[in-house]
Specification:
The structure is a homodimer.
Chain A: E1 3-4, H1 23-30, E2 34-38, E3 41-44, H2 46-65, E4 69-70, E5 76-78, H3 80-84, H4 87-90, E6 96-99, E7 105-108, H5 113-123, E8 132-141, E9 156-166, H6 169-189, E10 195-198, E11 209-215, E12 221-226, E13 231-233, E14 254-257, H7 264-274, E15 288-297, E16 303-311, H8 318-325, E17 328-331, H9 334-337, E18 361-362, E19 368-369, E20 373-376, E21 385-389, E22 395-401, E23 410-411, E24 430-445, H10 447-452, E25 455-457, E26 463-465, E27 467-474, H11 475-485, E28 487-488, E29 491-492, E30 503-507, H12 512-527, E31 532-535, H13 542-552, E32 556-560, E33 568-573, E34 579-583, H14 584-594
Parallel strand pairs in A: 1-31, 4-8, 15-21, 16-20, 20-23, 30-31, 30-32
Antiparallel strand pairs in A: 2-3, 5-7, 6-7, 8-9, 9-27, 10-11, 11-24, 12-13, 12-24, 14-22, 15-16, 15-17, 18-19, 21-22, 24-27, 25-26, 28-29, 32-33, 33-34
Helix pairs in contact in A: 1-11, 2-6, 2-11, 12-14
């Protein structure tokens, strides 16, 4: 049915909402697409709902095309399956929990791994039933600490989550590849630029893990790219370690008095002033080895103190450190350090901990105590020379050589990535960029199937744990990303295939004749299957109508104005900015052709 | 894309689910349409989801056709708006309540009156913005004490709720009529028989209220109908009161000793044995007036004791009584009655309470105390003669005449409706029937607009409270009703417009030739836009395929069997039971015509 502005439930706003910082948030609210109901919880207005449905339909079609069957799980779920996989606890405050009238525990599902696993277990029992792929497009809940940027990070949101079920790893690889290709098609059809980033599979236990990011300055996710095509999450980047070096010519390590050199900057300054290098090169931060004392929190609550060493010209990236350890990490507190007298804050170095430290005790079962583990950046290879804390107030060690003067418990990816770092695949220097995560595919492996006992009989009649993949797209977030990608300072500017309406038809004058001509065009287009929004408002000025048309963002506008006297109407392309005068008799055919109807 | 049984996520079950009592529940689970996730909470399997969507689409199209705009509210909502209307408390245990990480109160919405009201208040301010109608098709939550019959009464369910907003009562009447007509179209298009029943508007405060019921023996709702077209909820039926009668010839009331006449039956028997009527007619239960002592619970918790009198041949219908009073009602307890010594359980009559009772005290503000209110069936008109309890152990009063020997505080619709009672509109005798409530339309009036301060300026610049209507359809319940209406003992039998697939194509033999012929037919139909489910399973017997085809319930089946040698395939109509042999070359055209593609 033809929708008319005089009755359609849309009101544009002149002011940006007070809590909005990013363009998509501002415009989607101002143009009447969404409206805030509570922090991170939005109402879909008619325009927004139409757009969301079109985005979801593209996702649905590509899932169907790879033989992925659509189901829909409840959002309200009993706690038991999530307790079985421990996610009931692990999710912490992010999980909305509630009780029913019989005092049973329920949750609002953040994702549905458990339920998909149990459903397949319920109905399938043989390798002949596999492979299988299932998905849903459904409302999800996460009690985010900081809901942000409108529908980009909400507490109630629309997500497509798909899962694959295979009897062996090769099958999982095939399913993963099918989904990966479907994702590329989806984002291509939506016209949304994307980068496929290697991601950490992390605690989930599988092997391959990739994120689809829409590159965008307001994105929350940092990733790195090279000109040669490498892209990865900062967490997933591996450091290119240099070759080990001979160190025969390096003088013996020497402890020097470095009063007040509590920072790398002051250490470098003091060193250049008091201990200049013989070859005249200045000392730089890169010559120093910075030691961070952190506490890694194990699942049982144990706080393990660790010495993390990185070149002094880099900071520790806590996210990379946490991803590497697979544990939550905090800076070590005074309390944490009480047990380790060798650690002297401000003057700690690799000789203060590690396998060679006299306090180190290795138990019969291999457990380490006495001296903390020492983990250093992969660039700290044998033969590299460093200035580092001496473990004595006001002192540093010079000419400290890795492998000669200290050994470590291992390397760790903890240093921040800096523009210019080499890509691990040799594809050139890296640069950091920001993006919005719009999709994530990863190999779950057998974690959920094991926890919930999903097995099938293989060809030999042997029971096999099923291996799974998980494939998510934030559908409502993708719509926000599309708004980020398709707007200017006047408003939204949707591509045809996701615009809520294809064409905005308006009469700019106040004459009945103009209004009737506009209505005839709108009705004719509508009958041809074109989605038309007809601005039939009589007491609204041309200026307001133009501004609304640009704010609302339909790809084409047909404007009936003074040219009507000469049999002409104007056709405007919202995205191209083109304007052309077209004969009234030709406009329907022309615009229907533009929108493909 | 063509869906094939070998890969499609459907498994039929031979056994009825243990908790299922009604046909739709059994069949929808056995045929793999839905699956229980928790009590009253269901997962939509691929077949069920397709069917639900088709039902929802019919509802959507008819809402759109009357200019009702679609929105979608969150399911997770802050408590404040529901506290403002008092529903946060009133909903009691039926409301799922929870807290977020900041300890704020939230709920899972059972309906969205508050949110719609606030949204319109947010955007509209003038009579020129009205009338407006909005709807959503959305997941709702009610923590039912007794979830029942699968998706007929669930705790998470899909509902269409629409609301109208008008500046005056005439506008509300117009909006109500538009929705009423749309409802008739919806259920007609779905092919679902329905009865429009007058319902109590009850505590909601509006005037018109009608329920759409699907007449069905397993329905939870009782309603009454007459051959002349009257239909109403039992609660909404008004009793046809007889004319008042002269009572000059009736002897004076007389107290008689009636030992052991604690029940109406024993009273009648004792009366006929000991006090036969002079004209020889037997006493019957209809000659007695039964008094029930009940406690009506007021919103402030006060338990008001009331004497309810009904003819002795009828029971009190507690639902009717509660609806009439607009209060929750319990039988009065000994404790309740302690304050009223005139009430003698088993021997209470209308002279034990009411306005003429010596214990009655009327306060200056009109409040009543001392003697309970006495409310009687409308049939107890002036001049009617009764046998009733005398308020003295072992005694009844005979020849007790209403208006002469006792007066009451008022009449009340509390007696059960009995088959043969006259319809209030004179359209003939009533009979009771059962049904499933599939829709409810009612005039909310200004209750929510007042509570949430939704006002607009009228033509004179005066602020007016908006008047609202509320229009619901239980979409998932309608699907269950459709399954009740469309099945036989072998399985489901969907009409074309809501069947998940139009046609089931199967090859019954094991030959490659048969399979290929069936596949070619399936693909050709699919390309023509027909929804086809292709049974390509190779190791499944013809018997199982036939049984599955009948259980799954697609309207047409094309069976490739032995006739293929003669160039024939069989076309079966699931609903008609017809079978016909059709030339292979003609079958696509024929069946595409049947399904309208």
């Amino acid at each position: 049915m033809l929708k008319t502005m005089s009755t359609y439930f849309v009101r544009t706003l002149r002011e940006d909402p007070a809590d909005a910082e990013v363009a998509s948030h501002k415009l989607l609210v101002r143009a009447g697409y969404v409206r805030r109901a509570a922090p991170g919880i939005y109402t879909w207005m008619p325009l927004g709902l139409r757009t969301l449905r079109k985005v979801a339909q593209v996702v649905r079609e590509e899932m169907d095309a790879i033989g992925c069957d659509e189901v829909e799980f409840p959002a309200l779920l009993p706690a038991e399956p999530y307790q079985a996989t421990n996610r009931w606890e692990e999710y912490g405050d992010n999980l909305f929990r509630l009780k029913d009238r019989r005092d049973n525990d329920y949750l609002l599902a953040p994702t549905h791994e458990e339920m998909f696993t149990l459903l397949v277990k319920d109905l399938y029992s043989s390798y002949k039933d596999l492979p299988s792929m299932l998905y849903q497009i459904q409302t999800k809940y996460r009690d985010e600490a900081r809901p942000r940027a409108g529908i980009i990070r909400g507490r109630e949101f629309c997500m497509k989550d798909a899962y694959s079920f295979d009897v062996d790893d090769e099958g999982l690889d095939r399913s993963y590849e099918l989904q990966r290709q479907a994702y590329q098609k989806i984002f291509s059809r939506l016209g949304l630029p994307f980068v496929i980033c290697q991601a950490m599979s992390g605690a989930m236990g599988g092997s391959r893990s990739e994120e689809f990011l829409f590159p965008c300055d307001i994105g929350e996710d940092t990733f790195v790219v090279s000109d040669g095509g490498y892209a990865a999450n900062a967490e997933a980047v591996t450091t290119v370690a240099p070759e080990t070096k001979p160190y025969d010519d390096i003088p013996a390590a020497e402890m020097r008095y470095t009063p007040d050199a509590h920072t790398i900057a002051s250490l470098v300054e003091y060193s250049n002033a008091n201990f200049p290098r013989e070859d005249g090169r200045e000392w730089t931060a890169a010559d120093t080895l910075k030691a961070f004392m952190v506490a890694a929190i194990h699942p049982d609550g144990h706080r393990e103190v660790i010495l993390v060493g990185v070149p002094g010209d880099r900071d520790v990236d806590m996210k990379r450190l946490e991803a590497s350890l697979g544990l939550e990490v905090e800076m070590a507190t005074e309390e944490d350090l009480k047990a380790y007298p060798s650690i002297v804050p401000g003057f700690t170095g690799p000789t203060c901990a590690g396998p060679d430290h006299p306090d180190r005790v290795v138990g019969e079962d291999g457990t380490i105590s006495g001296s903390p583990r020492s983990l250093v950046d992969p660039r700290v290879v044998e033969g590299t020379e460093w200035i580092a804390g001496a473990g004595k107030e006001g002192h540093h060690l010079y000419h400290l050589v890795a492998g000669r003067d200290f050994r470590v418990d291992g390397t760790i990816e903890a240093a921040e990535i800096v523009d210019g770092d080499p890509a691990p695949d040799g594809s050139g220097p890296l640069r950091t960029a920001r993006g919005i995560e719009i999709g994530h595919i990863f190999q779950l492996g057998r974690k959920y199937a094991k926890a919930l006992d999903l097995k099938v009989l293989d060809q030999n009649g042997k029971s096999q744990v099923v291996t799974m993949g998980s494939y998510g797209i934030g559908v409502s977030r993708v719509m926000a990303a599309l708004a980020e990608a398709n707007h200017d300072d006047k408003g939204l500017a949707w591509p045809v295939n996701i615009a809520p309406f294809h064409v905005y038809v308006a009469s700019m004058g106040k004459s009945e004749e103009g209004l009737n001509a506009a209505r005839a065009i709108a009705e004719e287009l509508s009958e041809r299957g074109v989605d038309v929004l007809f601005d039939d408002r009589k007491k609204v000025s041309a200026g307001v109508k133009f501004a609304d048309a640009e704010l609302l963002g339909m790809p084409y506008a047909i404007v009936v104005g003074r040219g009507l006297a000469d049999g002409l109407v104007e056709v405007r392309g919202r995205r191209s900015g083109d304007k052309q005068d077209v004969a009234v008799g030709d406009v329907v055919e022309l615009v229907a052709g533009y929108v493909g109807e």
